[in-house]
Amino acid sequence: MNRTTISLLAGTTALAAVTGFASISTPDASDAGTAKAAAQLPVERTSLLCPAPSTSDLAETTYTSFTPVTEGTGSDGKAELAAATAESATGAKGKGKAKAAKPVLAPKEPGKPVTGDTSGGDAPALVGTAEGKFAPGWTVQETTEVAAGTGRGLLGVNCTVPDTEFWFPGASTAADRTDYVHLTNPDDSAAVVDIELYGKDGSLKSEVGEGITVPPHGSEPILLSTLTDGPQADLTVHVSVRSGRVGAAVQALDARTGGDWLTASTEPTGSLVLPGIPKDATSVRLIAFAPGDSDADLKVRLASPTGLITPVGNETLHIKAGMTAAVDLGDLTRGEAGSLVLTPTGTSVPVVAALEVVRGKGAKQESAFIPATGPVSARATVVDNTAKGTTLSLTAPGRAAQVKVTASAGSEGGTAATKTYTIKGGTTQDVELPVPAGLKGTYALTVERVSGGDVYASRTLAAPADGIPAFTIQTLPDDRGTVAVPDAEQDLSVLQK
């Protein structure tokens, strides 16, 4: 076998490994000169990583797994979520890579959520894989209630897809904050990661964040205050992977306002949408960062139920290159649903951004984060929804859009329900949800864009306790449950070159 033949086979094998589908067929004369569009086929494999939920002995954590029913997947497949098994260099819990971990969750069928619980501060990070019919749109939520102490309240995070770069505007090393960046490695070889911090005056020089090793199938929580000499109220954290890939999320714990997970902003871009600010928010703080060499000037607008509004006194935001900018927007929503829309005032400069949102007053405050997110171009899902504590916000910053929302069967019973909504251009709506009939347990919400312009979405989950309006917010970026697969044809001429 010559080297050209090996290259042809390797290319075909790689396509099959990435998409689960490859086809080599003999050309038909009738197809000559006709270009065929790539087929959209379901992905065959999905990986998700969940950070260790809490170190508090008072923590109560629920994991919820769900895969929406997807056409064209076939009848085979499985999904499992298990503890990260490697022992980290900083003492993260584990029993050694050689011992297989018992699955924490193992869903039985698409279309129905499955849940699992754990208590205390010893729960490890989780590594999950879904294959076949469970892979397209697989979503796992980690929700933790902490009764007291720093970070008390409700913390929630969508388990993340492994990647090589993450931006987290909104982190802090202020006196009241205890922030960790959690790094989880799903692969058989170690990952090497650099963590860079950027404050209001630019990069914070530190060699401690360089070359951090995350062991195979292991997790590392890194305390951000160990990477800098002094407190910084507003930070942007940049996680970049030298080798391998990781899942990353920032756990932001506040002594006064509780805490939540800060997930990564969408990749740097000129225009951003931060959807689903709670209508009763008492404080909204915008944190943004321009990672390039150019300053950025952004127009700041609120997409309200009636249209786009410019907040008085905060019409624009100037961001110096390489520096983190922050501005207090106060009680921006004033009792109405809202989403923040950032667009360039002139030349478009890539930026990342997030909101820190506070509900309540005085000693009864609770905080959460809304990172800038991508649109629901086809479909997105969020899980662990409850009959009374769930709010779904939909935003169409440009043209009007039609959106279909499906509430799944409950984790313990109930019948799925669907509603279709029209979101007017430039507005945000907190929609009335199609709660499943006979609901028992929690349910999943799947959002599908039917027609029109871009749609952005987020879900607020509320669980008030002892007068504290505990809540958490998760954005709904597209689930990328399908992949474009070109129609491959046999071309023996490559063997003769």
Q: Your description of this structure?
A:
The chain has 1 helix and 38 strands. It is mainly β and 497 residues long. The protein has one domain (40-85, 102-482). The strands form 10 sheets. Strands 10, 12, 13, 14 and 16 form a 5-stranded antiparallel sheet that branches. Strands 19, 21, 22, 23 and 25 form a 5-stranded antiparallel sheet that branches. The longest helix has 17 residues, at 3-19. The chain is globular, with a radius of gyration of 23 Å. The model is unreliable at 1-34 and 87-98 (pLDDT under 50). Pfam families: DUF5719. This is Secreted protein.
Q: Number of helix segments?
A: 1
Structural class: mainly beta
User: What's the shape?
Assistant: globular
Between the first and last Cα atoms, what is the distance in angstroms? Answer: 14 Å
**Main β-sheet description:** 5 strands, antiparallel
Number of strands: 38
Mean pLDDT: 89
Please tell me how large the radius of gyration is.
Answer: 23 Å
Query: How many discrete domains?
Result: 1
Strand content: over 45%
Protein name: Secreted protein
Organism: Streptomyces sp. SID12501
Keywords: Signal
InterPro entries: DUF5719 (IPR043777)
SSE arrangement:
Layout: H1 3-19, E1 39-42, E2 45-50, E3 59-66, E4 77-83, E5 103-105, E6 114-119, E7 126-132, E8 139-146, E9 153-158, E10 165-171, E11 177-184, E12 191-199, E13 202-204, E14 212-214, E15 219-223, E16 235-243, E17 247-254, E18 258-262, E19 272-277, E20 283-289, E21 296-304, E22 307-309, E23 316-319, E24 324-330, E25 338-344, E26 352-359, E27 366-371, E28 379-385, E29 390-396, E30 401-407, E31 413-415, E32 417-423, E33 427-431, E34 437-440, E35 443-452, E36 456-462, E37 471-475, E38 482-485
Antiparallel strand pairs: 1-38, 2-7, 3-6, 3-8, 4-5, 4-7, 8-9, 10-16, 11-15, 11-17, 12-13, 12-14, 12-16, 17-18, 19-25, 20-24, 20-26, 21-22, 21-23, 21-25, 26-27, 28-35, 29-33, 29-36, 30-32, 30-35, 31-34, 36-37
Keywords: Signal
Protein name: Secreted protein
Signal peptide: 1-22
